[in-house]
Please model this.
Amino acid sequence: MLPNVRLWLAVFAIVLSISSVGIAQDIPTPRGASVELLTLADVAAGRARIVDLTHVLNEKNAYWPGPGYEPFQLKTIATIEKDGVLSKAFSMPEHLGTHIDAPNHFESGQPDLSSISPDQFFAPGVVIDITPQAEVNADTTLTIKDIQDWESNHGRIPDQAIILLHTGWGRFWNNYSRYKNQDAMGKLHFPAYSGEAARFLIHERKARGLGIDNLSIDCGISKNFEVHHIVNKAGRYGLENVAQLERLPARGFFLIVAPIRIEAGSGGPTRILAILPGKAKKEVER
Ligand SMILES: [Zn+2]
Model:
């Protein structure tokens, strides 16, 4: 190897290590390029932190209070004591717990759960926090101004990212009545995206999907499910009841979205994992 090539490589290595410091401190970058330096090899080698954004499924889970929806059920069909093996069967609506809304959920002719292209399941993540607004008004929705404020603080939202809207509703997850927040008239009250914000994120920022930490990407009082239509019409998906958003930074992490694959399905339970710079933890968190 020629000495000047070596020198060039050494300079390149220094530049790379400076960029790594950038990852650890989550310095906002114009294109969100820093996360791309975290590889699956880093994850395997314990050089990345994983936050599980998936609620644990059980029969107490909140679910959409619509006709035909039932709680999650798990029954034992064989035990080690009696059968030499432990085996169970579960049943649940597609749209229960942490789950994906496939593009065919609100728009016919769009891909069903089994035909979403797998490359759509890997993307940089972004968290937009509207917790303060949601504290004051449960019916609040994300505005264009909120997005502009976010971008002036953190840089432009990268194209093809998955957007996660943090409403603070995750803290009510174990209290179904507080979570759905239904009034005497039967109306639900929880925050979400507005139509204009969804349109901007899907069309101007090419978002792969829109996620939220409550029951729906449309707010509780929505009658026409405008946000679902905007997202699904563009062939994109929604993610609902996403857990632990309070543990994520505004940007600087990568997401893996892993739904089950149901033929003709309109949605289904989905494991969502955030990968961040930092040290791996050994224990499983709830
Ligand atoms: Zn859903």
